[in-house]
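[audit] Reproducing an earlier prediction to check determinism. Same input, same settings, fresh worker. If the tokens differ from the archived copy the diff job will pick it up downstream; this log only records the rerun itself.
[audit] input (738 residues):
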Amino acid sequence: MKLTATKYSYPSPSDHLQSKTRRGANRLVAPIFLWLFFFLFLGIGVLPLQAYIGPGAGFAFLSSFLVFFITFLLAIFSFIAWPFRFLIRLLKGQQAYRKAAVNRVVILGLDGMEPSLAEKFMAEGKLPHFSRLKKQGSYAPLETTIPSISPVAWSSFMTGVNPGKHNIFDFLSRDPKTYLPDLSSARIRPPQKFISLGKYRIPISKPEIKGLRKSQPFWKILGDKGIFSTILRVPITFPPEKFKGHLLSGMCAPDLKGSQGTFTFYTSDPAKIIQREGGQNIPVEVKDNIIDTYIPGPENSLLRSAEEMKLPLRIEIDKKKKEVILQVSGQTLKLKEKTFSDWIKITFRPGLGFKVQAICRFYIIQLEPHFEMYLTPLNIDPEKPALPISHPFIYAAYLGKMLGSYITLGEANDTWALNEGVLKEEAFLKLAYYNHEEWEKMLFLALDKVKKGVVVTWFETTDSLQHMFFRYLDPRHPARRYLYHDRYQKVIEELYRKMDDLVGRVMERLDKKSVLIIMSDHGFKSFRRGFNLNSWLYLNGYLTLKEGKQSSQEWFQDVDWTKTKAYGLGLAGIYLNLKGREEQGIVQPGEEANHLKQELITRLTGIKDKETGEVAINKVYDKEKIPPGPYKDNCPDLIIGYNEGYRVSWDSVTGKVNDVIFVDNHKAWSGDHCIDPRLVPGVLFTNYPITKKNPAIIDLAPSVLQLFGVTPPPYMDGQPLFSTPINFSKSTKGERKK
């Protein structure tokens, strides 16, 4: 859904509940270099300032000619300067690694890997390489963050600090002036200055594109010391930051439309044109086995009156061969039913000679009795990126040239398409493992190139597959009554086996002085019942609706803020309607606010689900009692620690209010981790023993620094895990166990 409170749209918080952030319309803005356009076409010389396109869909309509013209010039300069740079790097590199205890640190981030499942499968002999690491090195549960939400935990992983010092507390934050959600990881604001050219309105000032995560990632600190890192798809690395190394942005990197992932569903069945979260429906008509339709693109914000760009798409159906011929963007391709296409490059043309390039995959769901087709979110083309998704900018293109097209969307696996019934389990798994194969190729390319330094790769696969298939591990899950097929009973076991095989192949690439760390940011539990937090606040007198209203639509549309004391937003938070902070706040800071918090803590802690007799909330965390930091004021006033089996409901997270408190979860999204952090620690495997008891995710950053002889900054909350120097007498390199 789109919010209209501002000139551009916000994401919905339900996407991490549905795919870690709403796959909705979060319009972003990015820079575009226009000086060449002015110089060549308007004859007014080179402008002293760079000019930009936006806000609209978000993206810089970056001329591919300009990008690669500049790249060509840089390549020439780089070639000329190479001997001098090589000598400087050689001398500096020798100095940088002089105190290092290791040659290389390799970190595999297996998002959401659950300790109890890893232990179970190891005990059954199904994970030989994980078992080997446990025996020769170490294994332990890894303490996560408060709250146990991915962007929070990964921010702590990279910075070594608690959330109060890195400023990320959820996927979403809220605007206290509007009570509406905003993306917590980045601030995107449109440019303010324009020039007119006929029907076009061309921005000539910069938009604001600013990362909101604070504190420095460990690879930046290492880079300042001359130690190189390759960082692949780690969450909360968009927009990319400069450092000595290579980085490809991960979670929260947008698609071409500026959203966190918006799929398109084409159908000739009128009954299927229903509201779909995270996607867009396009009705089609079949005439003589021909469909003429379009691909919806980003807004053309070059126009005075911005409008959605549409790329013509023709589909010829051959029912006998069970295939179609697609004609799009000057290309013709054949595609069989129930088969994904390769990545297809498409081009939108907003005008004035600009091109906006994307890549996408098509999937023919069925040809009859009605035609149905799925189109992935429009990914930024890594070989001609419309905005920076990597550091340096050309690194994304380099990976594309080396490996071919690959997914660039931060939240890659389209969980919401499965949740909405557009994709079936088989198609979802195929697409997820296509993506996973791309990430493996990136990892092994980095391992081949980086013999000294750090390689970190984030794998989303473990997280998204457990979100969508956890019901197969829980006989009590309500979704099993509607969504259960025997052939998917072992999807999660097979997932863990695949990760074990990956670990074995990585171990083959290690030398004796390489440290391997395998970790997850949190674990997983079943999500059977939703708790309507805002409904509970309403029914207990803390949230008030406007006169005559007994429920509210999304985003608190019918809430009376002049009488509301508290409201829930995001995956775990409660905010007080604080006077002087919220636009219409009524709760006095100080004694009144503290009394209200204690009252809410007392009433919510231990609350029981009358239908099941189970406790739904284990603990409510007061932000004043979590670790301090300069950004703690941005934390929700209270953080809810749900019990296993429970989580905030789908309705509550989108700001809906009604008279229902507990509700069954019937969605495919059946596993979760946004609960009491004590229940969902991650995992930690290393190929050399650790010495610290009870390791935590904040310990990883100082550990890597220490391994390279860099003293962790005093502000870091974590502590090194290893004793140095490491005893390299025992190596984990050797033959893979079958």
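[audit] rerun output stored. Observation attached for the diff report: The chain has 17 helices and 33 strands.
[audit] end
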